[in-house]
Design brief:
This protein has one domain. α1 packs antiparallel against α5. The protein is 88% helix and 0% strand. The chain is an all-alpha fold.
Length: 168
Amino acid sequence: MKKESKSKKSKNSDKKMTQIQLVFLVAGLLVGLFLMGLGIYKNINSDYNMMKLRTAEEVRPEVDAKREDLKKIRTERDAEYEASGNSAKYQELNSKFMHTESELLDLEAELFSVTSGEAEKMRKNTNATTTSYIIAGAVVCALTVATFGFVQSKTGKKENKILSMKED
């Protein structure tokens, strides 16, 4: 009778150990996958990716076109002011001039960002940050699986019930 109760206690402790190992495995994998997912999320939603940067060759013609538009509007506006002073048409042209000027400034800032290498620095920083999250997640997953395998091999069981999926 004592052997039977010892055997029952041993089976209960084995089951508890197996449950603890499974919880450890699942928790480790979840943490690792969370870190990798966080790295991918940060990469997708980074400032660099949200900016949708264009090349300098794409921006320069737009900047030149805006400068030409600005010159035309300035000439029209000045002519209207000389002709009729501070009229409604002058106010409309002045508003159009200021709007075009702000668009030109935005395009020039984009061009400067592309040509100065500021965007490249931002891209490298984003990649360094997100890559570290992804690598850390992969390491956590690998270490969790390795630890789980090590503990399973050290339990001394000839047949591993967890990995073989056999019922009692």
